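hi! just following up on the protien thing from before. the input was this:
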Amino acid sequence: MFFRRLPGLSTIHSQITGVILLSLAITVLGGSFLKQRVESGYSLVDVEELADSVFTISSILKTATPEERDIVLQAADRAGWHFTLRPRALAETFKSSWPGESVLDATMDWLFSPDGRQTPIGGWKTFVDDKRVVSAEIDDKTILVLDGLPSTAFWSEVLDYLVAVITLIVLFSSFGVWAITRPLRKIASAAANADITSGRVIFEEEGSVEIVAVARSLNGMSDRITDMIHGRTRMLRGVSHDLRTPLTRLRLRIERVGDGQLRDMLLADISRIDSLLKESLSYLRDDHHREQVETIDLATTLQTICSEFDDVGHKINYIGPNHLSANCKPLAITRAVTNLCENAVKFGDKVAIELKRSGDKVVVDVSDNGPGIPKQSRAQVLEPFFKLNAARTDGNAGFGLGLSIVGEIVQAHRGTLELLDGEPSGLLARLTFPADLQADSVTCT
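and the predicted 3d structure came back as:
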């Protein structure tokens, strides 16, 4: 909005003040211009001014003799005033509307009803024989009636009110959208789609002082969260790495144990700990944040994954086209599908990968015929370090990080991960992400 470019109007308070002053200027200038244009085509009547004239003449006629009354009425008639003296009983026939009056005219008269000090007989809006009149009392038997008014008597203040209301609505609506609503929506959208682990700026620091302060606070909070995550990640990496040296020494010492059964049990525990460390280090890697988006043949990538599992004795069927191009992070997607396949072959003997395209989305389904996951636990299994105590766990289970890694990779691709019931049994893990993912929509550091 142009207020931002004006010196001294950097805050919302000053911008609102500027809008009010601009509205007043437009009302004064625009109202005067509109009034001149309307007066050139229509005869504008100020009912309050007419009523004041009627009350003034009636006050003169109250103390005048019949001959003086005739002189006053003749003088008024020569001046263009259509005054008549009518019986007091005529007031009983006054009506507040006439058949030809439109709804708009009636509404305008109701909204902008005059508020003069003295009210004419019958109110501010009275009709006699479909003619609008203004009347005042002379005595108990006579009233003074001014006729010749338009059926709908406009008054000049209406134009000022209309110009002021329309100007304020338009200017404040535009100001609210461009200076407040639009920036806040951008902040909310950016915050909702922010990838904290990438450390990217959440929102551009521009606009009014208040909006810049909000954006700067969000960016500062993002930096603090990123620093905290990186600090804890470095600590856990160091711990996991340092544990490998004593584990290696333990393995060498255990190899010299004479009891074969005891030696095998101790080596199994060492292997278990080593596998858990590898899983932890794999989770703590953030390669999918640094990897660049590329155009790959996703169908070929999935077929390669099936072949690699087949080489180690796990049969995985591929269902889908021979070729399908998609924009993604190749290593990250390969890692996500591999993790799903590793989970599937642990708990089922029939595993399949299905690839299809739905509109502008790519859908990858990894299904098995295992025991599945209860619906009430499907949201929890996506959390790090959560493990089920049901059928999909065994003695060789890890830390429960595989699905968490998949969830983070899919989120980095602006996609979704769904855990559904397999047909006729088992689990179906569905990955959905944009086929034409743009490089600038996924932040890499």
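The first strand starts at residue 83 and ends at 87.
The two ends are 33 Å apart (CA to CA).
cheers
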